[in-house]
User: Fold this.
Amino acid sequence: MTALLQARDIVKEFRRRGTKRSAEPFRAVDGVSFDLEEGATLAIVGESGSGKSTTGRCALRLIEPTSGTVTFEGTELTSLSASEMRRRRSRMQIVFQDTYASLDPRWTVGRLLAEPLRLHERTDRREETRRVGEMLERVGLQASHAGRYPHEFSGGQRQRIGIARALMLRPKLIVCDEPVSALDVSVQAQVLNLMKDLQEELGLSYLFISHDISVVAFMADDMIVMNKGAVVESGACADIIANPADPYTRELLSSVPIADPKVYADRRTARLRASADAVARQTEAE
Ligand code: ADP
Ligand code: MG
Assistant:
């Protein structure tokens, strides 16, 4: 079986600002490879600056990798023309950490959600309104919220709007770039739980970027650990958390505030699960 998304030897170099053309560029991503299977979640873990976001953006070809290949649904993205890439992009979306930056504050939620439809599909107004309302309800908001602006919502609700917008074109793949890192733990659980439900219902695959091992343990099947642009370790989350092979991974795990990181990750994962269950019960009761 071929993976939905395959990255092979992705390299991304940035020219340092104000340096001569002949100066050595800075290598933010240094030969990263991974496979993401359909319906699965692959996490990219690593501390700030390790190259996670740059890898995610290269995977969607939002930025051009310096070298390496990305294959999505059997097609090598780097071989596509701009217009072919545009069409393909509707099937691959991204959700960002910072909803203040990613949701234009001057636009209503309705317009934010309708925009992808206007760019990619010929949808009439009535159908547009219907799909926006349906999606808002699908992510736990209300159709009537379409007339409001992003700042009228809480952080968790804004992230639901970001997720809703990413889903408007019925994508297969979503790159989630620290989607809950700006949220309180109880709100994190609600949003992560929603993302899991959506994944199951819609058959989504997630490339899930996070620096938080407990969030990753809750969400992902497999992970790659990045340090200074390179993958230092990859495999099943449970195996890596129980038996980190690389010293950098051990260090990442040991930065969590408890003697045994496995116990910590398990506890936090259990807490996330408990809050998620409580939310589900509450929603059912309403
Ligand atoms: P992470 O998401 O793991 O925190 P990033 O992928 O954002 O890491 O960044 C990796 C490295 O690349 C950092 O040192 C960052 O400063 C650098 N970098 C990212 N984007 C650019 C850019 N557009 N120009 C120059 N350097 C960049
Ligand atoms: Mg980042």
User: Anything to note?
Assistant: Residues 257-261 have pLDDT under 50 and may be disordered. Strands lie at 5-14, 26-36, 41-45, 67-72, 75-76, 92-95, 173-177, 205-210, 222-227, 230-236. The chain has two domains: 5-244, 256-286.
